[in-house]
Design a protein that fits this description.
Blueprint: E1 2-7, E2 12-21, E3 27-37, H1 39-42, H2 50-72, E4 81-87, H3 91-108, E5 112-116, H4 117-123, E6 136-141, E7 146-153, E8 156-162, H5 168-178, H6 185-193, H7 218-230, H8 239-266, E9 271-275, H9 282-294, E10 298-300, H10 312-319
Parallel strand pairs: 1-4, 4-5, 6-9, 9-10
Antiparallel strand pairs: 1-2, 2-3, 6-7, 7-8
Bound molecules: 5'-O-[(R)-(carboxyoxy)(hydroxy)phosphoryl]adenosine and zinc ion (ZN).
Length: 340
């Protein structure tokens, strides 16, 4: 089966062609996964500007689509299904991908499988073609989401907890903005943290002992704000800034790991799967892997290219969602689309 996938939820325009073979234990072969990032467009604003994102998708999607088809060496008639992320996300960004998918579906006479964006991140771990046994605990950490989701089977989700305010990636982005480090914050903070001491600055671990599986990152961001007034040296490049980045990163990681391990124990899961843009963070990948190993629980995290938004992950989720395939007239975008 050949799936053509589209992703335009936020600031990445992506098209992927994925070949799936085998029914019971499907194997994913990524024939192409083209991504056009808009970082340069949004960086001067310290965050994503929705109207600019929409315009960039409109301009780039046809080019990215053409490249993805060429790289995959397929013809349009080879496509069995079309899939697109239909939400959550920025509505004027989502609409570009959804409308493109509808036009293709009409022209090719193929159905569309609508995919919820978070389920896409979750299924990015299936692209590794490793055997994954249920129950599975997913820690999805991105710019818009921080969620712990239990799965008892394919597409059977139970939300255990989520952030009550900012998402983990949002906290990285806001702290980077405070320090004048640009957008997106995660990659630059993690790079600077490599040369820093994670015990140098004392930062809170919000809700670490709250007894539930929810998170809160807005307090951490506020502490950073006050610390930046007291320690002006962290606002310029140098050892203090590196130490500060390492301390902030560790505070966020400690909370994420503590809650994940607690949930994994409670629900006796076989696998912990890390996903979403923040899962590209080396320290989080390393430390959660170690924590899972200590618990004798298997751990998986996608290759970095599949951590941030991409269309290949949408194809994987679509494969396990085939029953949802619809004709082009019945596909809608929904900025607040829920996983469950
Ligand atoms: O999944 P994604 O591409 O888009 C959303 O669905 O939100 O995630 C983007 C987020 C941004 O907040 C970015 O700062 C964060 O992922 N991120 C990271 C790293 N790379 C990207 N956060 C921490 N460390 C990283 N290395
Ligand atoms: Zn995402």
């Amino acid at each position: 089966m050949i799936i053509l996938a589209i992703e335009t939820s936020c600031d990445d325009t992506s098209v992927s062609v994925v070949k799936v073979t085998g029914q019971k234990n499907p194997k994913f072969q990524i024939l192409s996964n083209e991504i056009s990032s808009q970082i340069k467009t949004h960086s001067p604003f310290g965050g994503v500007v929705p109207s600019l994102a929409s315009r960039e998708h409109l301009k780039n999607l046809p080019l990215v689509f053409k490249k993805a088809i060429k790289k995959a060496k397929i013809e349009l008639k080879d496509i069995d299904y079309i899939t697109t992320a239909t939400g959550p996300g920025l509505i004027i960004a989502l609409l570009i991908g959804v409308n493109f998918a509808k036009a293709l579906s009409y022209t090719l006479g193929k159905k569309i499988m609508p995919v919820q964006h978070i389920s896409g991140h979750i299924y990015s771990n299936w692209l590794s073609n490793k055997k994954i046994e249920f129950p599975v605990l997913n820690l999805v950490v991105s710019g818009g989401h921080t969620e712990l989701i239990l799965m008892d089977g394919h597409a059977k989700y139970k939300k255990l907890g989520s952030t009550r305010d900012d998402a983990a990636g949002e906290a990285f982005d806001k702290v980077a903005k405070l320090l004048g480090l640009g957008y997106p914050g995660g990659p630059v903070i993690s790079k600077l943290a490599e040369g820093g001491d994670n015990n140098a600055f004392e930062l809170p671990r919000p809700m670490i002992n709250s007894g539930d599986f929810d998170f809160s990152f807005s307090g951490l961001k506020t502490s950073v704000f006050y610390l930046s007034k007291k320690h002006k040296e962290i606002l310029k490049p140098g050892q203090a800034q590196n130490d500060f980045c390492a301390s902030f990163q560790q505070a966020a990681i400690d909370v994420l790991i503590a809650k994940t391990i607690k949930a994994a124990r409670r629900y006796k899961v076989k696998y912990i799967l890390l996903a979403g843009g923040v899962s590209a963070n080396n320290e989080l990948r390393k430390q959660l892997k170690q924590a899972a190993k200590k618990e004798k629980i298997e751990f998986l995290v996608p290759e970095k290219i599949f951590c941030t938004d991409n269309a290949a992950m949408i194809a994987a989720a679509a494969y396990f969602n085939q029953k949802k395939a619809k004709g082009w007239k019945n596909i809608e975008a929904n900025a607040n689309l829920k996983l469950i």
